[in-house]
């Protein structure tokens, strides 16, 4: 959130030069405030787990947020009770005529399929097209980020030699971006995916910019220059045990997975992993909500 200071305080100019958001008394007096309307398109099979992880991050801010959950009707979800979807989820047809301050599109375990081969691709493409005019800012996560950057900007994904799983060291490459305000120079974040988007493809696109990368894991954060679209190619919302659960699941399936990198102490999967990404993850969601949704969305939501 911004700090509110007297109109003529000498520190104002210096703080603004450091890209710190300050709000003068005059602006604060005339500021209208209302709850933010946020829509989450949950494509993960473990919907309740994903709901909990995302809502934990979204709730830990001073902002009042009204959250609605969205499902695709062109895909039959097998890992959640139908009653849960009927009770808590809406469909695109029910929100098509409405406007939202923010949209989150989650990941999905369909990375090895061509986008057009995913059974709900046409519906997802329709939602992403709708978001251009009915959503102020959209945050895409993991496969959702790959799908979004492909649909909106034509940037393709590439298959990795093996699954990328673990917690990896990252560096911020655009420190002036409010999205990474408060981040350390180096920070850690979880990844779990079979495909990647290349930094050179993002850098070559005039409407995109890189925000954070990893030597081992590649691109982590990119965004559109107009701040309409944000792409996070990892899973900052993951809990301490999420990667361990995925590793044990793959073991049980006979997939012979590699131990998630930099996750278990001494790479020993019998030991409890240490969660060293929570602070940056919280900052990521808070900064997106604050700087790119709350501070810039119209007070009259119909003007989006």
Walk me through the structure.
This protein has 304 residues and is α/β, with parallel strands linked by helices. The chain has a single domain (32-303), classed as Rossmann fold (3-Layer(aba) Sandwich), CATH 3.40.50.880. The protein is 31% helix and 25% strand. The chain contains ten helices and twelve strands. Strand 6 (100-105), helix 6 (121-134) and strand 7 form a beta-alpha-beta unit. The protein is globular and about 60 Å long.
Shape: globular
Oligomer: single chain
What is the averaged pLDDT score?
91
The CATH class assignment is Alpha Beta
* Coarse structural class: alpha/beta
- State the major sheet: 10 strands, mixed
Task: List unreliable stretches of 5+ residues.
Answer: none
CATH superfamily: Class I glutamine amidotransferase (GATase) domain
Count of domains: 1
The total of beta strands comes to 12
* Proportion of beta-strand residues: 25-35%
- The CATH architecture classification is 3-Layer(aba) Sandwich
Q: Would you summarize the structure shown here?
A:
By secondary structure, the chain is of the alpha/beta class.
Quick tags:
304 residues; alpha/beta; Rossmann fold; 10-stranded mixed β-sheet; two-stranded parallel ribbon; 10 helices
């Amino acid at each position: 959130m911004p700090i509110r200071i007297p109109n003529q305080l000498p520190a104002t100019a210096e703080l603004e030069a450091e890209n710190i958001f300050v709000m003068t008394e005059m602006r604060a007096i005339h500021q209208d405030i209302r709850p933010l309307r946020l829509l989450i398109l949950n494509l993960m099979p473990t919907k309740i787990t994903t709901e909990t992880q995302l809502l934990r991050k979204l709730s830990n801010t001073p902002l009042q947020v009204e959250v609605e959950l969205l499902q695709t009707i062109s895909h039959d979800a097998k890992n959640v009770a139908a009653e849960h979807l009927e009770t808590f989820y809406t469909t695109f047809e029910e929100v098509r005529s409405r406007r939202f301050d923010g949209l989150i599109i989650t990941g999905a375990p369909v990375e090895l399929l061509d986008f057009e081969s995913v059974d709900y691709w046409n519906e997802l493409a329709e939602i992403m097209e709708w978001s251009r005019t009915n959503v102020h800012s959209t945050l895409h996560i993991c496969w959702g980020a790959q799908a979004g950057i492909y649909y909106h900007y034509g940037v393709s994904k590439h298959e990795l030699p093996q699954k990328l799983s673990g917690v990896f060291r990252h560096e911020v490459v655009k420190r002036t971006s409010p999205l990474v305000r408060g981040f350390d120079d180096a920070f850690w974040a979880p990844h779990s995916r079979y495909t990647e988007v290349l930094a050179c493809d993002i850098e070559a696109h005039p409407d995109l910019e890189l925000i954070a990368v990893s030597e081992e894991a590649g691109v982590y954060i990119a965004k559109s220059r107009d701040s309409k679209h944000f792409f996070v190619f990892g899973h900052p919302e993951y809990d301490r045990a999420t990667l361990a659960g995925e590793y044990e699941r793959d073991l049980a399936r006979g997939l012979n997975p590699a131990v998630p990198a930099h996750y278990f102490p001494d790479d020993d999967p019998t030991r409890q992993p240490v969660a060293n990404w929570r602070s940056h993850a919280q900052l990521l969601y808070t900064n997106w909500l604050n700087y790119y949704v709350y501070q810039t969305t119209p007070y009259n939501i119909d003007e989006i």
